[in-house]
UniProtKB/TrEMBL annotation:
Organism: Candidatus Ornithospirochaeta stercoripullorum
Example GO molecular function: iron ion binding
Domain NIF system FeS cluster assembly NifU C-terminal: 8-75
UniProt protein name: NifU family protein
Gene3D superfamilies, per the entry: Fe-S cluster assembly (FSCA) (3.30.300.130)
Matches recorded under SUPFAM superfamilies: Fe-S cluster assembly (FSCA) domain-like
Length: 81
């Protein structure tokens, strides 16, 4: 389980520069092995962008699925932890 979390974090770090180039960023919050949900938080310009859900599913989730596990779902948690 920790290996998957680490792999998700590594994938996020690889895609992070693309988000930062647009004034945003992404933070890894947690990974739930039972549900295969990776919880992240979009910040900066990404937090309020109307295209953020599209970026999350077509960009971040697709990349993580290719790199880590094709069944992972990425969820944007806008709550402050």
């Amino acid at each position: 389980m920790e290996d998957i979390s680490k792999s998700v974090m590594e994938a996020i770090n690889l895609i992070r520069p693309a988000l930062q180039n647009d004034g945003g960023d992404i933070e890894f919050i947690s990974y739930d092995a039972e549900s295969k949900n990776a919880h992240v938080k979009l910040v900066g310009a990404c937090a309020g962008c109307p295209m953020s859900q599209l970026t999350l599913t077509n960009g971040v989730q697709r990349f993580i699925r290719e790199k880590v596990d094709p069944e992972i779902t990425v969820i944007n948690d806008n709550q402050v932890f």
